[in-house]
Amino acid sequence: MLGLARFSLEECGDMYRHFGSDVFRQIPLVGTVKMGWCHSYYSTETWEMILREKMGDKMLIKTARDELSPKVSAVSAVVNWGNSPKAFIFRNYNHIWDQMWEAVRASSAAPGYFQEFPLHGDIHQYHCILNGLCAPAVHESRLLWPNQPYKCVLSLGTGCYDNATRSPGTSTSLWARINHMISINLETEWVYNLLDDLLAPNVYFRFNPMLSTEVPLDESSVRAMEQLQNDTQLYLDRNKSKMESCVMTESKTKIQKITLYDF
């Protein structure tokens, strides 16, 4: 929405607050029945209608006609290829059939929340198998510009909450062990730590605010959104020097691009 549809941050925030209450609104009994019937608690039709209304039927590849349009990708997981899910990257630099709203729909098909998204014979789900999207983004950029060094890699997290309290007892329950296995498989921070070690100094910047409370994926209340903003602002205040370094790196990169265009 930022890179291709050209919505501002303010517009994206307003849309989330407005449409979040529409999408994530459900009667518990109806949601439970829908979970058993079509494996989605919320109305997938409502979500698709909003995407079509806001993004239209514009093809991803047509955005490349604009010289100011960046290379943009959206990642989903295809679940009907073999025994395990496979990463699928929607992109505006060589896919000719996919529409913008389809890329958003496929990459947001979180199991249990919305139905899977069938497209061109593939079945798409949310990309939770990838343990972080920065690694495939770095890989894609290397394929696009194999001889160019990385100038700035910016990774933005959705926030993390860790209730670091030691539980009593000498063993854990079976349910706790299952949750631990799921958490390990979905852990993303180790990917970002690895990128931080491998990329050159002052190139990789990761911002992932610490949250004061756990926020579910389908949270849309005004109070929770305000708390998220407060936690994020506090995090940015504490990491002001890191933010300034990132801005300086971005500014240098833009100056180099302008110089290249001039000559």
TrEMBL record:
<feature type="domain" description="PNPLA">
    <location>
        <begin position="1"/>
        <end position="139"/>
    </location>
</feature>
<dbReference type="InterPro" id="IPR002641">
    <property type="entry name" value="PNPLA_dom"/>
</dbReference>
<dbReference type="InterPro" id="IPR016035">
    <property type="entry name" value="Acyl_Trfase/lysoPLipase"/>
</dbReference>
<dbReference type="GO" id="GO:0016020">
    <property type="term" value="C:membrane"/>
</dbReference>
<keyword id="KW-0443">Lipid metabolism</keyword>
<keyword id="KW-0378">Hydrolase</keyword>
<dbReference type="GO" id="GO:0019369">
    <property type="term" value="P:arachidonate metabolic process"/>
</dbReference>
<dbReference type="GO" id="GO:0016042">
    <property type="term" value="P:lipid catabolic process"/>
</dbReference>
<dbReference type="GO" id="GO:0047499">
    <property type="term" value="F:calcium-independent phospholipase A2 activity"/>
</dbReference>
<protein>
    <recommendedName>
        <fullName>PNPLA domain-containing protein</fullName>
    </recommendedName>
</protein>
<keyword id="KW-0442">Lipid degradation</keyword>
